[in-house]
Amino acid sequence: MEPSERAKAAGAPVEADISGMKPGDMKTVEWRGKPVWLIKRSPEMVASLKKTDSEVADPDSMRTQFSDTPEYAHNEYRSIKPDLLVVVGICSHLGCSPTARFQAGPQPSLPDDWQGGFLCPCHGSTFDLAGRVFKNKPAPDNLQVPRHMYLSDTRLLIGKDEKGEA
What we know:
It is a single chain. The protein has helices at 5-11, 43-52; strands at residues 14-17, 26-31, 34-40, 84-88, 99-101, 117-119, 126-128, 148-150, 155-158, 160-161, 164-165. With 166 residues, the protein is α+β, with helices and mostly antiparallel strands. It has a single domain (5-165), classed as Rieske Iron-sulfur Protein (3-layer Sandwich), CATH 2.102.10.10. It has a 3-stranded antiparallel sheet, with no helix packed on it. Strands 2-3-4 form a 3-stranded antiparallel sheet, with no helix packed on it. It has a 3-stranded antiparallel sheet with strand order 5-6-7, with no helix packed on it. The model has no long low-confidence stretch (mean pLDDT 88).
């Protein structure tokens, strides 16, 4: 038995145009029925990741019991290039979709020393600007980094990399 063409297409890699993205921009593309967030991080956003290293549960994405993190995301940026984050926008706790809270500083439901990131409205899990979950939160793992690769400086392929398809 072979999967139908529709089933194949539902799991197929998708291309994303990142040409017009400016620092602070977030774009959502759909892959396998899930939202994949593309976040163009500013130099300040990238620098903030050092400040959250000690506060996140898995700073280098080395835990593998919850997700298969690609080798190129085993770093503090969780990405191939520090300025572009590619993550599935679904909380690892119960599947809610976190909201972007990029602005640093005190805000409702967030700590006073907030550096920017994501807040899951369902149970309060927080993630930094690399999608790394903070310690002692309901979410057991970081946001998933799907396999991806650059086709050019302006095109990204999600769902496939040099080692194969996800």
